[in-house]
Design a protein that fits this description.
By secondary structure, this protein is an alpha/beta fold. The protein has six helices and six strands, in the order E-E-E-H-E-H-E-H-H-H-E-H. Helix 3 (108-116) crosses helix 5 (144-158).
Length: 183
């Protein structure tokens, strides 16, 4: 008997949140969906965060993923951008935690490495490999959706077992693993 699992992957962002979902049956991967949430049309950062939370909950309630994989923010030079990106990731994680979906974080280089074998691969290279892996006929014009899908596929390839990732199954585990992020 083949076991089935649904994995939701999220590439958080404050202007665009990319997401993708796959169904795993045995060793077979099947694309359920990939899309993006356009947030640039909202002026308020708070409203953008609310939309991320609502869309993530909607995806969880509609498709009932067994696991959520999310890309961890990368450290850039702009502190304000990092702060906003961390908030976007946080509200997506909060939605998963609210619905008690186990969450695993992956660094961007880890995702690219899992998909292409190159941690410095471009978005286009990642998208092209996903197209082949999942038999996708047409890729979206913006690659935020494929980035979210890549996180889900990375999670499948890593079987959620990676010493470089952080896992959260509840608020308690999140608080325990992030004492400086919670006051």
């Amino acid at each position: 008997m083949k076991t089935e699992k649904i994995i939701l992957g999220i590439d958080p962002g404050t202007t665009v949140m990319g997401f993708g979902m796959i169904q795993v049956t045995g060793n077979e991967l099947e694309l359920i969906l990939m899309d993006e949430l356009i947030l640039s049309k909202y002026d308020s950062h708070s409203l953008r965060l609310k939309k991320i939370f609502e869309r993530t909950l909607q995806l969880i309630d509609e498709f009932h993923p067994d696991e959520l994989a999310i890309e961890a923010p990368f450290f850039g030079k702009n502190v304000q951008s990092m702060l906003k990106l961390g908030r976007a990731q946080g509200v997506a994680m909060a939605a998963g935690l609210y619905r008690e979906v186990p969450i695993t974080e992956y660094l961007p280089k880890k995702v690219k490495m899992a998909i292409t074998g190159n941690g410095n691969a471009s978005k286009e290279q990642v998208a092209a490999m996903l197209k082949r892996l999942l038999n996708i006929s047409v890729l979206p014009t913006k690659l935020d959706a494929t980035d979210g899908l890549a996180v889900a596929v990375c999670h499948y390839f890593n079987k959620g077992q990676n010493s470089e990732t952080k896992k959260y199954g509840s608020w308690k585990s999140f608080v325990t693993n992030n004492p400086k992020r919670v006051k």
